[in-house]
# Entry
Amino acid sequence: MKLFARAVAVVLTAAVAVPSFGGTGVRADAATTVTLSPYSVYDINDGKFEGWGTSLCWWANRVGYSDSLAQKAADTFYGEDGLRLNIARFNIGGGDDPKHDHITRTDSNMPGYTKYNNGNVTYDWNADANQRNVLQRCIKAAGDDMIVEMFSNSPPYYMTNSGCSSGGRDPGKNNLKDDCYDDFANYLAEVSYHYKTEWGVDIQSITPTNEPYTNFWGYGSAKQEGCHFDIGNSESKIILELQRAMKAKGMDDVIISASDETSIDTQIDAFKALSGDAKKAVGRIDTHTYGGSKRSELRQLAVDSGKNLWMSEVDGNGTAGTNAGAMAPGLWLSERITADCNGLNASAWILWQVIDKHVCAAGYNGKKDSGMVDMTKGFWGTAVADHDQNTIVLSKKYYCFGQYTRYIRPGMTMLKSSGSTMAAFDEKNGQLVIVSYNTSAGKSDINYNLSQFSKVGTSAKAIRTSNTENWADAGSYTINNGVLSVSLEPNSVTTFIIDGVKGGVEFTDKIDVDLSKVTGSAPWKDDTNNDCKKAFDGKTSTFFDGLGNGWVQADLGDTYELSAIGYAPRSGFEYRCTAGKFSISVDGENWTDLYTIDSVPSSGMNYITKFDGEAVGRYVRYQTPDGTPDSSVNKDNSYCANIAEIALYGEKKEVVPKEVLGDVDGDGSFKVNDIVLMQKYLLGSGTLVKWKNGDFDGDGIIDMFDLVLMRKHLIANS
# Structure
């Protein structure tokens, strides 16, 4: 096999185990091992990360009246010295009936761009100046990485059945009039076109709905605009109308995303229910993660559908940690970011709004502001805008967010991981970024195994946020034999930056395995859908579900010298590979052990390039032990041969038979037949195939002395 250096950015996975990999590593029974391998990246968008962001509604609508606060916000959230966000979701407000006065929040009464008078509609481009003021400053602060998505909470009130932009009189039924789908789509396209042509806003994507399949949005709500759309025909119709309207404006290069359901599980149902044409029109799936749990299912749906996937909105007032104080809301946010990104493999992660609370004695537009929050308890947002002091008050939640946003940057390749860790690789600059949180009251030891990268630096720089630190320089840690061993401080989030990193190698010369020559032990419950052949079918989504002491074996048909073995554990059951062993055999009977998996592997493909024995043979076997596991990482009652895929790499090797003394007929062994042939040869009636093997006394002559010695040797060894 030829190996070509390639700085692939890639990954892999986290696991609780006794740390060791390929014979290297540090033994620390209490530590968690996180293996990061350059062979498994996020499934979405080829692993390329697009960035971090926030919605501009409603906070930008509230602070944008002040150029000073607007600039401070842009610098704080999008600037180089701030969070370095690069995605803004801009709300195209529908606008409520001017006679209504039921939205009581000071920030969420969003203005629309049209005025309606007895059937006549005119556009007011002075509307929404506040949100636009903030947007333009954020674009400048973020620079070339900036991405703008337009989205809508509701159509203008006069297009709705209820005559109200906060929802329907029955919040569980469609509120957009049946004959206004085209009008609403034209409205969204017109506003987007104006922002592009008049204000120079480069719009990457647009979504026509926001949490549409809920019963949240009701007539006269005190909170915000909202509109129910049924999944299926209703959502399909508005998507296709928007596609038509954007094309008419020459903006058909703008991605249409859908459908921003509030729940992961609902998002799966909603996308599946779209018409075929609507699915084609959707360039990216956007989901919120306020509810639902089927992250891996939504990820697979996006992959199977050829779609990108964003986590486009979430926040909450949750807390995490042990007696964590002000860090509790930030640790909750860290848990949510890590679960969403690693579970969905999303190419972007977007907070609902970075400012949710406002302090102002005078209030705003006749409404009272929410006031300061207790930042040691759960709260929405990451900061509070103090309009009286013309300042933005930051929290630990803000600084925890920055542990991710400031260092995992757009364009990096996301590495599959799990547990409390996220990681990304910057191929161009040779930098690996790892972020881990610790929610315990004591220190947490982690060994990051980096041995599958072809090169890593000698040390890692640490940046930490804790109850006493904000993005603090936490020193550096030495990397020994490809392992970075650290001790995370209690209730903290730490980012590690490693320079001088190169990816793995590209594997060529893959051996084609004939499935008819794959054998193995019986699958669980004799289920042929999960039999041993699944381990060589080229799909990591299928798996061999074997029993204890289970095995799978491939007959390669010829003798090969292996240069690498790739393997993928069954997703969600990675721990079952621990103690699994690869072996090789020339004859299918006598086996040489090549490698034992001694820690929990990556959820994707893992590769072995260093073997314990000579990797030459015709048969390759993977086998798990018998009995009950003795490892703390595998708490099953017995070992199970769960493996999703095996890939073998190498070149055919011409095997020169080993010369065996006495083997004159050349069959590879010495037995009675050789003595018979020797006698015939000495009598002049036979031909020796391997005459040198008959020269027992080593004098270069075949004679009766050699025959006598042959007989003695055979008798002595029989």
